[in-house]
C-alpha cells in the first residue's frame, strides 16, 4: 500500500494540486485495497500451492511431505508408465481415458447444447417449461448424477433388467461392467448433466443476435441451413469459447463422477488422471508421484487452453 | 506502563499454570465407524469412559474404508492439532510413529500386561521402536468362507477341506442353478480373496515369504502362478454382474440364498447378525479350504498421539479401557471380530466367534498368524495397492494369463518398494 501512496504523490497531476485530500487519495486507492485480500489469497492458495506441488514432485515424499530434493524419479516412473499399454498401467489408462472422455464430453455437449438451443429458439410454446427441464441436471452434484446413473446402467437393477421384465430378453447393455466400455458410461452421465447448461448458454447467445441481420439474410434468400451455418454459428463464437472453457475444466476435474458411477471401474479401467492423483497421494502414500501427475495435468491443460485463449482473444479488435 | 505489562504477563502465565494443573477430562477420537453396528460397538467404549468421568468428543469421518478419515487426520496432524486417539490401520501407525507424532503408552502397557496378551504379530504395528504407540481393538481374519446353510443342504454339500473339494462344491451349486460364488468386483475384495487362495495353494510358509517378506523368488515361483490359476478358476463361478459390487451386497446374496458362498473377512458376520441369522442354523463359517490352522489377519488400532501433559490422563484411560477384557469381549461380540488379546473369555461369542478366537490363539502360538496383504498388514500401502491392481486387472481381463500376472506382480511390487 505504501508504494501506491508514493506513486500517487509523485504523479504530476497531484503536484499540480498540492492539497490532495486524504479522502481523494483513499478513493484512488480503494479498489486496490478492496482487491488486495483476494489477490493475496489467490497468490498463496493457487500459485503458491502450484509451486509447492512442483517442488514436492521432485522430492522423495511418501506419506508426509519431505523437503529434500531427490531428483525426477517420479517423472521417470510416470514416463515409463505412459508407454505400458499391455497390460495397461494405471497411468496409461488414466491418460487415454482423459483423451476419450475429454474429447467426447466436450464435443457432444457442444453439439447437443447447440442443437437443443436452436430447437428451443424456434419460438415454440411451452419454452418456459422445457428450458428448466433441460437445465435441471446441472443443479445436481456429480455424486448424485453418478449414483443415479450407476443404478440405471447396472444390468441387474436398471435398464437391462427392466427391459428383460418387459419381455425383451435379448437386450444386452453392460457397458458399466465392461472394462473396455466403462469410460463411455462416464461420458453418457457427464453429457446428460452438462448439455442442458450449455444449451442455456447458447440460447442466451442466440437471443443476443440482432434480428435485423437474420431478416436481411432471409430477404437475400438464404435458406435456414445457410442462415445458421453462415451467420448464426459464426456470431456465436464467443459463446463457444465460454462453453469450451466451462466444459474443459469440468472434464478435467470430474473425479467424483468416476468414483460415484464406477468406483474406479473393473480393474481400475475408468480412472481419470484426477483419480490417479488422489489415489497415489492419499491412498498409496506416494506423494511425489501424485504431485508429478498433478504437474503434468496442469501442463497439459495449459498447453491446450493457452493457445486457444490467445487465438480467440487476440482477434477482438479493442 | 511497564508494571502493567508485568502484571499482565504474570496473570497470563498464572492462568496457563492453572490450566495445566487441571487435567482435561475429555477424549477426542477420530474414527470412521459410523454405520449402525459399528457405532453401537463404539458406544460400549464411550459408556465405559463416561463411568470414569471422561467426556467423549467424537470426530467421525465417514466413508471410503477410512480414506476420508486418514486425509482428515493428515490435516489435523499437519496443523499440530492432534486428537487424543485415532482409528488407524497397520502401516499408517508406523508412518505416523516414524514422523514422531505418536505418544508413548509403554508404562500402561507394562502395568496391564499387554506384551503377554497381545499376539506378537499385532505388536509389530502397535509397538514402534520399543514404545507402545497404539492400542489394538480387534483382530479380523480374512480367510473365511460364509455359506448359506439352506442352499448347502439343498445341494447336499459338506465342508470342503481342499481346494479341489471347494471346486466340486461350487460345481454342485452351479448345477442346482444357484450362483456358486458371491464376489464384489472391487480390487480390495478380489485381493482379499486372493490372500486366502495363496495361503491355500502355497501353505503358511509360502504365504509369509511371498506376502509378508516380499521375497522375489517366491513371488515369481510356480506356486504363485498356480495361485493365479486357482483364482482364475474361482472367477468362473461368479455371476456376470459382479464387477463393482459392494461387499455387503455380495454378503446379502448369500443371506438371501441367491448365492452359495462368499469368501470374505469376518466383518461379513456383522451383516448376518444384522439380518438376524444364527451361525450353524442359517449360515456356516468355515476356514477357506486348505487354510485351517492359519489366520490371515487385519486389525483396527487406536493410534495414540503425543498429546499435551494435561490430556495424557484421558489418553491412558482410553487405552486402558480399550484393552480391558470386558470391553474387548463386548465390542467384538457386536463387531464380528475377535479380541486383540488372547486371554479374553469366549463365553459371550457365537460359534464362529469361538472358532475365530481358538484359531487366533493357535495361530499365535504356532507362528501361523500373518498380516493380510490386501488389507494393508502385509506390506506398506504402496506395495499393497500395487498388488491389488495386479489381482484386479487379472480378474477383469486386462492381464490375460497367469504367467503375465506373475511378471506384473513382481514388477509392480519392485516398483512400489
Automatic annotation (TrEMBL), chain A:
Listed PROSITE patterns: ABC_TM1
Protein name: ABC transporter permease
Bilayer-crossing regions: 33-55, 98-121, 133-152, 181-206, 227-252, 287-310
Keywords assigned by UniProt, alphabetized: Cell membrane, Membrane, Transmembrane, Transmembrane helix, Transport
Topology within the bilayer: Multi-pass membrane protein
Family, similarity comment: Belongs to the binding-protein-dependent transport system permease family.
Gene3D superfamilies in the cross-refs: MetI-like
SUPFAM superfamilies with a match to the protein in the record: MetI-like
Lineage: Bacteria, Pseudomonadati, Pseudomonadota, Alphaproteobacteria, Hyphomicrobiales
Positions of the ABC transmembrane type-1 domain: 95-310
TrEMBL record, chain B:
Major localization listed first in the record, in broad terms: periplasm
Signal peptide: 1-21
Pfam families assigned: SBP_bac_1
Xref: Gene3D superfamilies: Periplasmic binding protein-like II
Record family assignment: Belongs to the bacterial solute-binding protein 1 family.
Function: Part of a binding-protein-dependent transport system for a sugar.
The protein's name in its UniProt record: Probable sugar-binding periplasmic protein
Species name: Mesorhizobium wenxiniae
Lineage, broadest ranks: Bacteria, Pseudomonadati, Pseudomonadota, Alphaproteobacteria, Hyphomicrobiales
Amino acid at each position: 500500500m505504501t508504494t501506491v501512496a508514493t506513486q500517487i504523490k509523485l504523479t504530476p497531476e497531484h503536484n499540480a494540486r498540492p492539497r490532495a485530500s486524504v479522502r481523494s487519495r483513499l478513493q484512488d486507492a480503494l479498489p486496490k485495497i478492496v482487491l488486495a485480500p483476494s489477490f493475496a489469497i489467490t497468490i498463496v492458495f493457487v500459485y503458491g500451492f502450484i509451486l509447492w506441488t512442483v517442488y514436492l514432485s521432485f522430492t522423495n515424499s511418501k506419506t508426509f511431505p519431505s523437503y529434500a530434493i531427490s531428483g525426477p524419479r517420479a517423472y521417470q516412473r510416470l514416463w515409463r508408465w505412459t508407454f505400458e499399454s499391455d497390460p495397461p498401467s494405471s497411468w496409461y489408462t488414466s491418460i487415454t481415458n482423459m483423451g476419450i472422455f475429454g474429447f467426447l464430453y466436450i464435443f457432444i455437449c457442444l453439439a447437443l447444447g447447440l442443437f437443443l438451443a436452436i430447437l428451443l429458439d424456434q419460438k415454440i410454446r411451452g419454452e418456459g417449461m422445457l428450458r428448466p427441464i433441460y437445465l435441471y441436471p446441472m443443479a445436481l452434484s456429480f455424486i448424485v448424477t453418478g449414483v443415479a446413473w450407476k443404478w440405471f446402467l447396472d444390468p441387474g437393477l436398471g435398464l437391462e433388467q427392466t427391459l428383460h421384465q418387459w419381455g425383451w430378453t435379448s437386450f444386452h447393455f453392460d457397458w458399466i461392467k465392461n472394462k473396455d466400455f466403462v469410460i463411455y458410461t462416464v461420458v453418457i452421465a457427464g453429457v446428460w448433466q452438462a448439455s442442458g447448461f450449455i444449451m442455456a448458454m447458447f440460447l442466451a447467445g442466440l437471443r443476443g443476435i440482432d434480428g435485423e441481420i437474420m431478416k436481411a439474410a432471409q430477404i437475400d434468400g438464404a435458406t435456414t441451413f445457410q442462415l445458421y451455418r453462415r451467420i448464426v454459428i459464426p456470431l456465436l463464437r464467443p459463446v463457444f469459447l465460454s462453453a469450451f472453457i466451462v466444459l474443459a475444466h469440468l472434464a478435467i476435474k470430474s473425479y467424483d463422477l468416476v468414483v460415484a458411477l464406477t468406483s474406479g471401474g473393473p480393474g481400475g479401467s475408468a480412472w481419470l488422471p484426477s483419480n490417479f492423483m488422489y489415489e497415489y497421494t492419499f491412498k498409496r502414500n506416494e506423494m511425489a508421484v501424485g504431485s508429478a501427475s498433478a504437474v503434468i495435468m496442469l501442463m497439459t491443460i495449459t498447453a491446450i487452453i493457452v493457445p486457444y485463449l490467445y487465438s480467440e482473444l487476440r482477434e477482438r479488435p479493442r | 506502563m511497564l508494571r502493567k505489562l508485568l502484571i499482565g504477563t504474570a496473570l497470563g502465565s498464572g492462568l496457563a499454570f492453572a490450566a495445566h494443573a487441571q487435567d482435561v477430562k475429555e477424549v477426542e477420537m477420530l474414527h470412521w465407524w459410523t454405520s449402525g453396528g459399528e457405532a453401537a460397538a463404539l458406544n460400549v467404549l464411550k459408556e465405559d469412559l463416561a463411568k470414569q468421568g471422561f467426556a467423549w468428543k467424537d470426530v467421525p469421518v465417514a466413508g471410503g474404508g477410512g480414506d476420508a478419515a486418514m486425509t482428515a487426520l493428515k490435516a489435523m496432524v499437519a496443523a499440530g492439532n492432534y486428537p487424543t486417539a485415532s482409528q488407524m490401520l497397520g502401516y499408517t501407525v508406523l508412518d505416523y510413529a516414524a514422523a514422531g507424532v505418536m505418544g508413548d503408552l509403554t508404562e500402561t502397557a507394562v502395568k496391564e500386561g499387554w506384551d503377554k496378551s497381545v499376539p506378537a504379530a499385532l505388536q509389530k504395528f502397535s509397538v514402534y521402536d520399543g514404545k507402545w504407540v497404539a492400542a489394538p481393538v480387534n483382530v479380523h481374519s480374512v480367510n473365511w468362507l460364509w455359506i448359506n446353510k439352506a442352499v448347502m443342504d439343498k445341494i447336499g454339500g459338506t465342508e470342503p477341506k481342499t481346494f479341489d473339494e471347494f471346486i466340486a462344491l461350487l460345481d454342485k451349486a452351479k448345477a442346482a442353478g444357484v450362483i456358486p460364488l458371491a464376489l464384489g468386483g472391487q480390487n480390495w475384495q478380489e485381493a482379499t480373496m486372493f490372500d486366502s487362495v495363496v495361503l491355500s495353494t502355497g501353505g503358511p510358509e509360502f504365504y509369509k515369504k511371498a506376502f509378508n517378506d516380499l521375497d522375489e523368488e517366491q513371488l515369481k515361483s510356480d506356486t504363485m502362478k498356480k495361485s493365479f490359476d486357482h483364482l482364475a478358476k474361482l472367477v468362473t463361478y461368479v455371476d456376470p454382474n459382479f464387477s463393482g459390487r459392494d461387499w455387503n451386497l455380495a454378503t446379502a446374496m448369500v443371506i438371501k440364498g441367491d448365492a452359495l458362498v462368499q469368501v470374505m473377512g469376518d466383518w461379513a458376520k456383522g451383516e448376518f447378525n444384522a439380518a438376524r441369522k444364527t451361525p450353524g442354523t442359517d449360515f456356516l463359517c468355515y476356514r477357506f479350504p486348505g487354510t485351517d490352522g492359519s489366520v490371515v489377519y487385519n486389525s483396527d488400532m487406536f493410534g495414540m498421539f503425543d498429546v499435551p501433559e494435561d490430556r495424557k490422563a484421558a489418553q491412558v484411560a482410553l487405552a486402558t479401557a480399550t484393552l480391558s477384557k470386558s470391553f474387548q469381549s463386548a465390542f467384538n461380540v457386536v463387531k464380528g471380530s475377535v479380541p486383540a488379546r488372547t486371554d479374553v473369555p469366549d463365553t459371550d461369542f457365537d460359534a464362529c466367534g469361538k472358532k475365530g478366537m481358538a484359531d487366533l490363539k493357535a495361530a499365535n502360538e504356532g507362528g501361523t498368524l500373518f498380516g493380510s496383504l490386501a488389507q494393508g498388514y502385509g506390506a506398506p500401502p504402496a506395495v499393497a495397492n500395487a498388488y491389488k491392481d495386479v489381482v484386479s486387472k487379472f480378474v477383469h481381463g486386462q492381464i490375460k494369463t497367469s504367467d503375465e500376472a506373475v511378471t506384473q506382480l513382481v514388477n509392480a511390487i519392485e516398483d512400489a518398494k
